């Protein structure tokens, strides 16, 4: 399920970090924690697991501000307006639609770091209608897609969509999320897609935009992640289309990567 959330800036300060994704992700966890602490701990510390790795199976878009200026030199966004919206998407059967609405309504969210920040309050939350998923879908990024590949010598590379193996890693990630979801739903080792490996075809449309995101900014754990925003046509099984739409395409959906919208074709 997916929600369009409208926030109002209630704090007097107008400046937030450009890299707000980690703080926003933490705020979502905190809101869930107020209603169901055990479930929040499950999401944060364990998640749905496949092949020994956790998947948090939610994603969110970047924030769309009304009345703002990007101050690149200082790494700040000046939000001189009042309203901002974003989409938050869950692939979690346990959380019902009305429950989510009640959970987020009127919540306060602080976005900031050691330098500056401000407070927002949820004003409206609306359900996004469930799309009809087909074998071929046309998407546009609402937040950058991050695809990472481990190096044999240690560390990892962040792939751009033109690199060899990019689409295969997208497929691997979707299959792992499918396995993680089915394991929780049916018990260890059950459910999921058929044993036959599905075919995925990703066609890029138009320009590709590189987006660097720093998480845990101004802390010893600070790190820079690289994602890419673009439009694309994806041919894949319907089940994987739905998983990508709700849980995010690529890695680290719960940190604000891989959220997409469906682009309707012009008639």
Structural overview:
With 267 residues, this protein is an alpha+beta fold. It has five helices and 17 strands. It has helices at 21-35, 37-46, 97-104, 166-186, 238-247; strands at 2-9, 15-17, 48-50, 53-55, 58-60, 64-65, 68-71, 76-79, 83-90, 108-112, 117-127, 136-141, 148-150, 156-158, 201-215, 223-235, 260-262. The strands form five sheets. Strands 1, 5, 6, 9, 10 and 11 form a six-stranded antiparallel sheet that branches. Strand 15 and strand 16 form a beta hairpin. Helix 1 runs antiparallel to helix 2 (37-46). The longest helix has 21 residues, at 166-186. The radius of gyration is 18 Å and the shape is globular. The two termini are 27 Å apart.
Largest sheet: 6 strands, antiparallel
Mean pLDDT equals 86
- The number of distinct β-strands equals 17
Task: Using the CA coordinates, give the radius of gyration.
Answer: 18 Å
Distance between the termini: 27 Å
Q: Enumerate the spans where pLDDT stays under 50 for 5 or more consecutive residues.
A: 185-191
Tell me the series of helices and strands, N- to C-terminal. EEHHEEEEEEEHEEEEEHEEHE
How big a fraction of the residues is strand?
35-45%
Helix count from the secondary structure assignment: 5
Oligomeric state of this protein: single chain
Helix content: 10-25%
General form: globular
Pairing-aware structural class of the strands and helices? alpha+beta
